[in-house]
Amino acid sequence: MEVTAASPKQTTFSTLEEETIFFLKGFKLSGFINQTLFLPAIGKTIDNNASLQAMNTIKPLEIPFFFATPVTLLSNVLFCLLALFLLPTFTQATDYIVGPGDVIKITVYDHDDLKTTVRVTENGYIVMPLLGQVKVEGMKTSDVSDQISRLLADGYIINPQVNVFIEEFRSKKAVILGHINKPGIAELRGSATFLEIVSQAGGLKEGSGDTATIKRVQDGKQEVIVLNIKSLVEGGNISQNIIIQDGDTIYIAKGGTCYVTGEVNKPDAYPCDNAATVLNLIALAGGFTGKASHSSVRIIRLIDDTKTILKDVDLNTPVIANDIIVIPESFF
User: pTM of the full predicted structure?
Assistant: First the structure.
């Protein structure tokens, strides 16, 4: 990779954002910077298709004056690569919703006297030097930064650059019940997913079902979310691994049980879900014995609390929880 040093010249910046953009212009990785960059130093996002569009006129790796030595070149290269690889972490942090009990750290570039670490009150306020009380509850961290910037720009500081970081997450809680090893209250630290809470609760019990039900109060209304655990764990469907919110109640259902009796090698109770068939259950029970009648299989099923016998069922017939599958002996 060829590195070309530009001619030294004196350059000044009025804001940290200008300096950072200038730095990125001098370090364009052709074809590599292809998404929005989050810059923790200035607490804002710069879109590759907008603010960084000017970079298209810069030759790849055309190095400005401050890359004069190999040491500074290496340090700035490492900084840029670190910013790129940590992109998911930084962007996720901007989505966190601030609430009472959170401890947030606020810094203002070039104004160390305004640096403060403060806990959000029960009413959702913080106390900020110069500004006094500022309402932050229910806002994303990026929105809190913008809010404080606007207030400081109103007669206090010209073009303030404000960073907001979560120093300590408040203790949010969810309840997890049902077929789980350690049912009870689970503490939520930051953005906790469904699988993280299941792990915190000791994992699923043997024989747990394929679904989880989450009861959530959203905007004063209760909603029910049903998750497909089998699709998540076995199929890798990460859309089912949702973020658990403060106050959620999670219920892990017990798996359905079917009973196989008669001419099978291992008659017993076996787990069955909505996709299971008679043949699946016979396979779990070790298969037919040599005396089994393959064509006379019966299912004893409760329908409206009444025992119903389904005779001569096809082996591909779906089963439901609590079915009793009877394999009779063949007399021929």
Answer: 0.48
